[in-house]
Amino acid sequence: MKYNTSDTIVALATPMGAGALAVVRLSGAQALSITNQCVHKPIPAEPRRVHFRHFLNANQELLDQVVVTFFQAPASYTGEDVVEISAHNNPLIVRGIIEETLRHGARVAEPGEFTYRAFLNGKMDLTQAEAVAEVIAARTRQSLTHSLRHLTGVLRDRILAIKQDVVNYLSLLEINLDFSDEEIEALPREELARRLDTTIERLRQLMHTYSYGKLLEEGIRILFMGRPNVGKSSLLNRLVGEERAIVSDIPGTTRDYIEAQAQLDGLLIRAVDTAGVRQTPDAIEALGIERTLRQAEQADVVAAVFEAPAPPQDDDQVLKSRLLTWQAEQRHAVVLLNKVDRGEHGAWATFLKDLSYPVVRISAKTGKGMDAFREALLGVFERERALEHEDVVVTSERHRDALQRALEALEGARQGIAAGFSDEFLAADIRSALSALGEIVGETTPQDLLNHIFANFCIGK
Question: What domains can be seen in the chain, in order of their start residue?
Fold first, then answer.
C-alpha cells in the first residue's frame, strides 16, 4: 500500500452503528475548504473554535445539524489542517456527510493513514504510532497502562538514549580512523569495551521485559485437558465467570475446543475447553482429541483435570504420561483434582507423586479451590509478573527482533575488540546496531514495513 499524502482524506473516527454522536475527520490542505462547500455558512480559519452549522446535501437540503472544529497545521493530530465534524450517529447521516466531502474533492482514508501522516509530520515517532493501535486494542488494565506509557514516549526515550550512546562510540571510532596515521586514539579500546558492556547490559534488560510484554499482548492461554466428564467445561465456566462451555453428564460432549476470555489480576486469560482425551471408536470425537493434543503444544499452561472421587483410570495414565514429558521439557501445568465435594480416592496420592506440578483440590460445583487455582496460575508466571512495575516494557515482537539485532551487533563489536580486530570492523558492527535501533523509532524503517504496520490500523485512525 502506498499513501498519497498530498490528498485530503476523510473517514469516520468513531465506531460505526447507531448512537449519540459520530465524528467525521478530514485531514489535508483542502480540509477546511471542502467542509465550507458543504455547510450553510463558511467556517472561519480560526483554530480550535467550535461552530454550529447545517450540513447540506447535493440538493442544498439539510442533512444534519453538526458541530465543526478546525485544527490548523501544525497544531493538529496529523500535523496538517484537520476538520472534525460531530454529527448524530445515524449511518445514513454519516454516509451522507462522507459522500458530500468526497464529491468536493476528498478521498476515503486508508487504514491508519491519519496516524501515518502524524508520523511523517513528526507529531510522533513509530513507537508512539504503534501505541495508538495498542491503546485501542488493549483488553486489560495492565495492557492499557503500558500502551499509554508507550504513547507518551517512554519507550522512544529509552531507545534514543541507548542510540545516542552508540552514536558516540561510532563518532570516536571514526576519529580514530581519520587520525590513524598520527596514532591518535580518541577512545582507547579498553574504555570502548567497558562502555559497550554497559550498553549491552541495558539492551539485555530491555529485552528481558518482553516475556511479560508478550503476556500483556497475547494473554495467558490455558488449556483444560482430561478424560471425558471430569468437569473441564464446568471449571472453565467457573474461571471465566460465565456459561461458555456446554456442561453434560454424557462423556464426549465437547467434540472440538471452546475458547473464552477473562481477566486475572490485570492479565488476559484465554481459557480453552477441549475434547476429553481417551481411546474412542467415534471418528468425530477422535478428530477433536487430535486437535486437543495440537492445542496443548501451543498452550502457555495446561490445566490437567482428574476426577478425585474415582480411582485413576487408563485414560488418566495417558494424560499423566504427557505431563511427565512436559515436566521434563519444563513446560507449565497445574494439576486439578476436581469434584472433591464428593471425596477423594486414596490412590491419587501415589498416582501423582511423580509430578512436581502444583496440585489443587477443587470443586467446579461448589467453587471450592478456585482461589487456589487462580493463585497457582499466577504463580506459574511469577517471574514475568515481577516486571509489572517496569517503566518500559517491550510488548512488540518487531521491537524485540530489532533489539536482538542491535544486541548481536554490539556483542560482535565487543568480541572484535577481544580478538584485536581493526576499527573498521568494529565500526561496521556498531553501524548495524544503529540501523536496528533506528528501525524501532522509525528513522531507518523500510517503507514496506511501515506500510504493513499502518495497514493493520482501523480506518479513521
Answer: 9-123 (3.30.1360.120), 130-209+394-441 (1.20.120.430), 215-385 (3.40.50.300)
